[in-house]
Every structure is written in structure tokens, then in C-alpha cells.
Write a structure and sequence with these properties.
alpha/beta
Length: about 240
């Protein structure tokens, strides 16, 4: 029996965009590859996956027999993402939410509906903060096992642990995977898995290894929750 059979997972992945005018936008460097790999692995373990992904992101490649357990939802902006999360979580209780999407922390204060002429000598753009989507996720479901990601640049392992733990506490997550863009761009993608005690419970190198470690943790958590649920059911008999 596959380890996540019957589990319902919500996974966000890829970039978000902030529109400047009719043809231009700001975004980030996320390709969505890690999120797609996580979804593929979860589907292989029997899970049902709702996959919210940014425009231009990679999406899971799955065999026909698994497509019925995969729901794809494309979003572009942070507002689109918030609406999609609210809709998905309003109708389903998820066992786990893996928030791997690279959400813009700042977006243009306004989007011009037409194209700004290229002859303009200067274009001053004001950016404003966006809502923290991971906090919205926790508010919508206080009981789902919530996994967040924290991306930094040029940080030591201890700094990644500290920053990741702070992120976990602020966002009331159950697990944070901290990584460093400088390492990723050098082909050494290391994921530091940080738990609610502030401890690094694993360091995985390479996207496939990060995915395998995450699936192992999700599987253990899902098994424990099933035992608790079945115990409660038996106790009521």
C-alpha cells in the first residue's frame, strides 16, 4: 500500500507576477521544478494533489492512471493566488499544505491598462507589500500539516536555521525548508529541514533528495494522524 493513499495535499508552486502595464510585469526566478517534483512524488505515493501554480511554471508529469488525483489551478498574480487558495481550502480539508510558491513580497502599486510608450525617458514605479499567503493558509486551516519554504542569499547554515525557525514561528508552520539561492545557482541545492523546536532535523542536497526527505516526513505525519483519528473513532464506539 502506498504511504499517502487517501491523503489530500495542497501544493503551491512556481512564480507570481505583478503587472506593470499591459505587456510588462515583475516576477522572480522560480521555475516551479521543485514543486512539480514534490507533486509527482506525492501522486506516486497515492495522494490526491491540488496543485496551484504560477503562469510559466513547470507542472507535474504524471501517468494517465494518476491524472484523476491531480487538480491543476493556474494563477498569475498574488491576488489570483489568494483567491485560488480560499476557493480550494473552502471546499476541502487538506491533510497537508506545502507552500513552495515564490510569492512576490512587493508588487506594483498600480497597473497601467495600456502599454507605456517606450519613448518615455523615465518610469518611476512604486511597490507595495503583498499579504503573507502562508498566514492566510494557517488561518483557513489551523490543523493541516503546514510546510513553508524560506529562500535566502549568501547565508551560513546557522543563519539559515535561525531565519527558517523565525519564519516557522511567525507563520505557525509545522516545518520550514530553508535554502540559499547562491547554492542553488551553483548547482548545490541544499534544503535545511527545520522543525518547531528550531532544530535542523535533516539536510538534503539536490532536488530529488529534498523531495524524498519531504515525502518521508509527510508519510510519517499522515500515518500518525490516521492512528489518532482511528483511535478516536474506536473510543466513540
Amino acid at each position: 500500500m502506498t504511504r499517502l493513499a487517501g491523503a489530500k495535499l495542497l501544493l503551491t508552486s512556481g512564480p507570481t507576477r505583478g503587472n506593470l502595464d499591459a505587456v510588462r510585469y515583475i516576477t522572480n526566478k522560480s521555475t516551479g521544478r521543485l514543486g512539480a517534483l514534490i507533486a509527482e512524488a506525492a501522486l506516486a505515493e497515492g495522494a490526491e494533489v491540488t496543485f496551484i501554480y504560477g503562469t510559466g511554471s513547470l507542472t507535474p508529469h504524471v501517468a494517465d492512471g494518476r491524472r484523476a488525483r491531480l487538480r491543476l489551478i493556474e494563477v498569475e498574480t498574488v491576488s489570483d493566488l489568494i483567491a485560488a487558495v480560499r476557493d480550494a481550502m473552502g471546499g476541502t480539508l487538506f491533510d497537508a499544505v506545502i507552500h513552495a510558491m515564490a510569492v512576490l513580497d512587493y508588487e506594483p502599486a498600480e497597473s497601467i491598462p495600456e502599454k507605456v510608450p517606450s519613448e518615455r525617458e523615465e518610469w518611476v514605479i512604486r511597490l507595495v507589500r503583498t499579504p503573507k499567503v502562508i498566514r492566510l493558509i494557517r488561518d483557513l486551516d489551523p490543523n493541516a500539516f503546514l510546510v513553508g519554504f524560506k529562500l535566502e542569499v549568501g547565508r551560513s547554515p546557522e543563519e539559515l536555521r535561525r531565519i527558517g525557525f523565525e519564519s516557522l514561528q511567525k507563520n505557525r508552520a509545522d516545518l520550514v525548508i530553508a535554502n540559499d539561492l547562491a547554492e542553488i545557482e551553483k548547482g548545490r541545492h541544499r534544503g535545511h529541514f527545520i522543525d518547531p523546536r528550531g532544530e535542523v532535523i535533516a539536510v538534503a542536497e539536490g532536488k530529488p533528495t529534498i523531495v524524498a526527505q519531504l515525502i518521508e516526513i509527510l508519510s510519517r505525519e499522515y500515518a500518525q494522524r490516521r492512528v489518532v483519528a482511528e483511535g478516536g473513532t474506536h473510543g466513540q464506539a
